Each structure stands twice: as structure tokens, then as C-alpha cells.
Amino acid sequence: MNVSLPSRAELLIIYHSMTGGTHQMAQACAQGARADPSVSVVLKHASQTDTDDILRADGYVFATPEYLGSMSGLMKDCFDRTYYPCLERLQGKPYAVMVCAGSDGQGAVKQIERIVTGWRLKAVAPPIIINVRAQTPERILATKQLTESELDPCVELGAMLGAGLGMGMF
Ligand SMILES: Cc1cc2nc3c(=O)[nH]c(=O)nc-3n(C[C@H](O)[C@H](O)[C@H](O)COP(=O)(O)O)c2cc1C
């Protein structure tokens, strides 16, 4: 007899990072979400994320660095490749945004919010921006090491999304 188990809700965390900060944020978020074993958590680099990944998921975290006042080029490339194939097919799914920035971060948040408004996604948490206080070329290009307390909000965001998806709350 074939017994098909109900499929687990999936949280897709899409990230890009050049000097490590956003990657750590995305990993912390995944760690928080994995506290709920009923949810499948997929952590994917933006360059490896395609339309099928996005269509399959039940909720999203978009994690990007802020570069030159906007999201990173590879994160934008991910939206460029998937925006129209996913249009009208994601209505009402929950999302959150995380940005790692040198001193600002608002530009990247605004851009992502505009794009996913087109997808009719539903924001379920305020954006998280971590500022690494990097404003000289040396500090900007240095590998980032975020502290546990800086990353705590990312873990909490993941836990909230994981629990919410697990319970079918969104
Ligand atoms: C080309 C470039 C442009 C940047 N522009 C901005 C910016 O407009 N605003 C800002 O707050 N930080 C800016 N930064 C700083 C980065 O956001 C910061 O270094 C952050 O750690 C990047 O995330 P990552 O460590 O995940 O790569 C810039 C960094 C680079 C390399």
C-alpha cells in the first residue's frame, strides 16, 4: 500500500554575499527556521535559484547586501530571471527581507519590497538591516564577522517564519 505523507511546507532563503555578512544572516535565519522539524528550509545562493525553486516554496526570505544604494547585482539578476515566469503565481505567500549594509540599507529594502509587491507577496515581518559600520574601502572589502547578538534577530525571524509556515498561519 502506498501511503503518501503530507508534503512539508518549504521556506526558501535566497541570498547573495561578497564579504560574508549577508551569508551569515541567511545561515542564522535558516538555523532559526530549522527549529521546526515540520518545515523544510532551503538556503540558496541567488545565482543558483531558478523559477521552479521559487514556485515550489511556500515562503521566502530575500537576503542581500546593499551595494551602491541598491540590492546586489546577483540578487537583482535572480529577480530579473524569475519575475515574469512567477508573476500571478505567488499571491499571498509570506516573505521577509534582510540586508547587510555598510551604513544604510534602505535602498535595497525599498527595491525588493517594490518587486515583491508585484508578485503580491505578503510581508510578515519588518525588514532586518544590519549595519557593519564599513565606510572606507579597506573596511568595505574586509571579510565580515557578525556577532551572535547581531545575528539574534535573524535567528528569531527564521524561527517565526518556520513556526508560522509549520502551523499554516500565513
Ligand atoms: C561596491 C560596494 C558598494 C557598496 N555600497 C553601499 C551602499 O550604498 N550603502 C551601504 O550601506 N553599504 C554599501 N556597501 C557596504 C556593504 O553593504 C557591506 O560591506 C556589507 O558587508 C556587504 O554585505 P556582504 O558582507 O554580505 O557582502 C558597499 C560595498 C561594496 C563592495
TrEMBL record:
Pfam short name (any one): FMN_red
Keyword terms: Flavoprotein, FMN
InterPro entries: Flavodoxin/NO_synth, Flavoprotein-like_sf, FMN_Rdtase-like_dom
Flavodoxin-like domain segment(s): 11-170
Transmembrane domains' residue ranges: none
PROSITE patterns: FLAVODOXIN_LIKE
Coiled coil: none
UniProt keyword annotation of Transport present: no
Protein name: NAD(P)H-dependent oxidoreductase
